[in-house]
Amino acid sequence: MSILITGGAGYIGAHTCVELLNAGYEIVVIDNFYNSQKESLTRVSEITGKSFPFYMCDIRDRAGLEKIFKNEKPEAVIHFAGLKAVGESCRLPLEYYDNNVSGTLTLCEVMQQFGCKNLVFSSSATVYGENNISPLKETMPAGGTTNPYGTTKYMIEIILQDLCKADKDFSVCLLRYFNPIGAHESGRIGENPNGIPNNLMPYITQVAIGRREKLSVFGNDYDTHDGTGVRDYIHVVDLAKGHVKALDYCIKNTGAEIFNLGTGTGYSVLDVVNAFKKASGADVPYEIAPRRPGDIATCYSDPTKAALILGWYAEKSLEDMCRDSWRWQSKNPNGYGE
Ligand code: NAD
Ligand code: WQD
């Protein structure tokens, strides 16, 4: 019996593969390598000293999935595969609905066909939308998303909850991630964005390494302690460990459960810049720029439910996140061997 990891070559997927292998699970990875390289999986094997099968397969390829389920007989699926760029989703909504929503439907149909009914899904804090006040709790109303990417996550949450209502054998954990940053402490795997990074930490590390001139801080007139946006940054290794706990829970239970995976602490953009400079010793020139459309002032989690039910809580500090992001960037200035 093994655990099938969709999108396992990506940023969060590769870190989760490491933690699953370290916890003694057998894994099988599928990825279409749209936003990743096989090299990340080679490095997962190198870090853990374990090998595992992987298949180049798109989750919308029903026949491909059927062959993999027939060969590998997975007991559960951790489903990371998806497109994740907010701005791109506004330009290419059909691609996002097709990849994320249709892809998940095909995956679930094949799971049902093969009697594999345990699923851990990568959702996002973005499903809380604009109208809830932090700290965000799982009981707050979801929806009110502001871009097609966020709406795909919200739609998939509804679909998976309906599936659990209809098929009482299904067990689904919907994991709402806050802002994952950092990298494995080996410096061998990490985030490897294509082109100009959209997210704060990869932008900071590329400025620090000299690939970009300066960071634009999007707004300093928010109602926060220093006027810049506040977010709940979480170390990707803590996040990966949350998946191991969620998987254990998912296999033992039925029905759909939602869990926030965050630290419960909010840091501003300037807090992150300053912590990064301290941890790396590198300079990060920045300028104050206009607000980015769609951004909110403050977003952080109430992580109590995951602590109580899964026995999981984040352990790493902002300093750890900055140090590990920098180690990854400085050891791999151009990502995976490009
Ligand atoms: P990523 O892009 O690094 O990883 C996603 C992986 O899925 C990539 O390897 C990509 O090649 C693969 N993939 C995409 N479409 C596929 C398809 N149709 N078939 C097979 N493989 C496919 O992204 P990540 O940061 O590791 O995110 C993983 C998941 O977590 C995504 O679903 C994302 O939406 C979600 N998430 C990410 C964040 C974040 O800030 N990184 C926050 C909340 C939620
Ligand atoms: C963080 C803060 C920016 C870049 C996004 C998605 C969300 C989730 C995580 C997937 C904000 C500021 C950023 C820059 C800046 N992904 N910033 N200059 O927007 O909280 O969340 O990624 O599910 O759905 O929306 O993350 O890293 O883009 O921004 O000042 O160059 O940094 O304004 O305050 P965000 P982020």
Write the topology of this structure.
Layout: E1 2-6, H1 11-22, E2 27-31, H2 39-48, E3 54-56, H3 62-72, E4 74-79, H4 86-91, H5 93-113, E5 118-124, H6 148-166, E6 171-177, E7 179-181, H7 200-208, E8 215-218, E9 230-231, E10 233-235, H8 236-252, E11 255-261, E12 267-268, H9 269-280, E13 286-289, E14 298-299, H10 304-310, H11 318-331
Parallel strand pairs: 1-2, 1-4, 2-3, 4-5, 5-6, 6-11, 7-10, 8-13, 9-14
Antiparallel strand pairs: 9-12
This protein binds nicotinamide-adenine-dinucleotide and UDP-4-deoxy-4-formamido-beta-L-arabinopyranose.
How many angstroms does the end-to-end distance come to? Answer: 35 Å
Radius of gyration: 19 Å
Spans of at least 5 consecutive residues whose pLDDT stays below 50 are: none
Helix run count: 11
List the ions, cofactors and other small molecules found in this model. Answer: nicotinamide-adenine-dinucleotide, UDP-4-deoxy-4-formamido-beta-L-arabinopyranose
Tell me the series of helices and strands, N- to C-terminal: EHEHEHEHHEHEEHEEEHEEHEEHH
Described by strand count, sense and barrel closure, the largest sheet is: 7 strands, parallel
Q: Specify the helix fraction band.
A: 40-55%
- Enumerate the strands of the largest sheet in spatial order, edge to edge or round the barrel: 3-2-1-4-5-6-11
How would you sum up the global shape?
A: globular
Query: Total number of β-strand segments?
Result: 14
Average of pLDDT: 97
Structural class of the secondary structure composition? alpha/beta
Fraction in beta strands: 15-25%
